[in-house]
Amino acid sequence: MHLSDGILPAPVLAAGFVMAGGLTAWGARGLRDEEIPRIAVFTATFFCASLLHFKVPPTSVHLLFHGLLGVVLGRRALLAIPIGLALQAALLGHGGISTLGVNASMFGLAALLAHQVFRQSGRAVWLRPFMRGALAAASAVVASAVMLMGLLWWAGEGFRLVAQYALLAHLPVLAIESMVTGFTVDFLRRVQPALLAGGLP
Length: 201
Prior knowledge:
The chain is mostly helical. It is built from 8 helices and 2 strands; from the N terminus they run H-H-E-E-H-H-H-H-H-H.
């Protein structure tokens, strides 16, 4: 789901860095020392997820887990995501350096949506923790795919066929991440419920 270098025009790339900078600054506001280890652990989770590729002909996709970051970290996910993406681009060649701002904004906004879905679904007392986590993860994947489709469509005629396929190709990712995030939320609720206290507003 990463956008690579050479696809988007320079003004869009610049706007992506400006937006990512603003989101990161907001995510860092009021950061406490005791939060850093938790952010680091989930940044590593986000980074490692990109190593899990599987074929969805005619392309391949990989796991993201930005929805899980949104559920557990709240707006602190806006710190974890740019770091994870920068490491992926530098060490693994996933995405690109010029598109780092756009990718960080796309995933960061999706993580914030997942956080809100998780918090708001808590008002429905009949929804089990598993379902709340699954819904949050699914919302993040769908939001990212829709933003990716829009950016690819904007990139020009040559990318419009790929744009139409973007959401369909990520349906397996949606299914896997919904299940994993749901089970993770259910597990954390039993062993470390403080991690699911709703995060930061």
